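Section 5.1 Outputs to date
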Amino acid sequence: MSALEIVMLVGFASGAALHLYITWLIARREDRWGPEPAFIALGLTLGLWHAASLLAALFRILGVPDGHVLLRASDTFVFASLAFLPATLTHAHAAFLGWRDDYERFSRSAVRVFTFIGYSPLVLLPFSLSRLWTASYESPVDRMGAWLIAFSIWHVAVLFQAAIVDKFLRRYFTDPRERDFFDRLAMALVVIAVSYLAVYPGGLRQMPSLGPWLEVLVQLASIAPTTIVAYYIFRYNLYKLVIQRSLAYALLAGIAAVVYVFVVRTFDQFLVAQFNVRPGVIEAIGVVCMVLVAWPVRRAMDRSVRHLFVTEIGHYRTVVEQISTESHSFSQLRELLPYVESIVTEALGVDAVRIRLAQSDGEGETDEAESRAFAALWHEMVRDRLDFAEDGPKLAALGAQAAWGCGATTS
């Protein structure tokens, strides 16, 4: 098995797992919001495309004859899911932009129109896929011919459009982390679009030796923006999606399997063929070495995971120490709250933090409108069993970006 085939199998398997896992996280959210169906459609499209590409590559590596029904079926799923990618990408960006804009400049009707335009080219999909089932079998990319050129133009145009929307979306956010997220996402989409143009319409895939590598890397490029999303979910709990540490351990297990199958066993077979070494000896030694290395690697991964949250842990300790030191100076909780607000505001680097006791129902508040807005927000969180709210109209009434409720999930 060649290095290119190993990259294909590992890359497509990782891409399928990553996209389907994040899609599952979005689908299981308890607090529902506007663009979720569009994100689920995009995640399923990418996950199924990587899974179908994995099967197609596996069938070719195993020597399935050209024209076999397994190859034709896997190629059909590859190109069908790939055809849905520009449509679902347009759908996801239009839905999120409209929701984030509260459907003011981008109304629900405009979102529906953009979504319809994005899906409309799919009416030609059955005609293009039928070419894969003709009597003579060719490489799917060569068989598509003019259809591939038309699809490339559509695909690249949608990628550039999505990058522009991402750059536009950053103006809706004040948090530097979220603005940086959209910047990186837009850059990744532009790089993918340019690479796609160079490899397919530009003909770089036909270069000897280097061409197949470029083609596979472009096919796996969709993992890059999804990896950015996964990093921000893991690092900042983006939109309240929690990636379990077990995912990192699963990735480590996958790497160990690849090392065993394609390094240890291959090296063992090479020594048997070249030096007549007893079969299985080197393989056993390799397995022992992998077991010995597994514990230090796991500890290194734990340290790297903890390192991601060093800043937050430092903020937490600073706030707790300062509040503990000064709390004895205040006789009542209401007197302590303004001090806590100032400490938390300084530690987090935000514009302002407000802490309000739900039980007070406005007692002692000088601004009745603000008190009513606080009460409305709290009752909504209790009703919907939320401990976190973000970017809703009741938050806008308070001029706030997010709210956390202690005990909001209990009635």
